[in-house]
């Protein structure tokens, strides 16, 4: 079995993805401003204004991202048959939603680039979102999907 066949590669890579993403959220929630201009539009304006409910939301998203990484670590070992099914479905669903979120945003940004959609975002942020942030979301989704699929395959082969 080659290295890429092991679910651990996807789980640990996905965990690192979640951890990095959570750290960025915690940094921004704590008042850090480096890189926030790459988001543009409403998010950038809210980050500058430091409105309490928005900052609370950024803290919350950081914790959700961290929980996503901890969830992936649950896939490192087999559980009961029912728990395996639940973990597989949750991991697959999370991956699909993350991937589709990024993809939907990529499509929206492309529409904005060709003039079919008007977004309140400057060109700098648009490029960052199109070539980094949205593909980053899609990468996370792919890692969750691959981890879930490998988890299911390994759990099935051990039963």
TrEMBL record:
Keywords, comma-separated and alphabetical: Membrane, Transmembrane, Transmembrane helix
Transmembrane segments: 9-29, 54-76, 88-118, 130-149
Full protein name: DUF3995 domain-containing protein
Membrane keyword on record: yes
InterPro entries noted in UniProt: DUF3995 (IPR025058)
The UniProt record lists the keyword Membrane: yes
Superkingdom of the source species: Bacteria
């Amino acid at each position: 079995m080659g290295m890429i066949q092991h679910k651990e590669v996807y789980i640990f890579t996905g965990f690192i993805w979640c951890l990095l993403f959570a750290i960025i959220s915690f940094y921004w929630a704590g008042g850090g401003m480096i890189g926030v201009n790459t988001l543009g539009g409403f998010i950038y304006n809210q980050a500058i204004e430091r409105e309490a409910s928005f900052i609370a939301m950024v803290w919350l998203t950081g914790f959700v991202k961290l929980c996503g990484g901890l969830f992936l670590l649950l896939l490192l070992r087999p559980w009961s048959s029912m728990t395996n099914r639940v973990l597989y479905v949750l991991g697959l669903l999370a991956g699909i939603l993350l991937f589709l979120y990024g993809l939907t945003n990529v499509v929206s940004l492309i529409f904005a680039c060709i003039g079919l959609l008007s977004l309140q975002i400057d060109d700098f942020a648009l490029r960052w979102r199109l070539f980094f942030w949205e593909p980053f979301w899609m990468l996370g989704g792919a890692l969750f999907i691959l981890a879930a699929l490998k988890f299911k395959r390994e759990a099935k082969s051990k039963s």
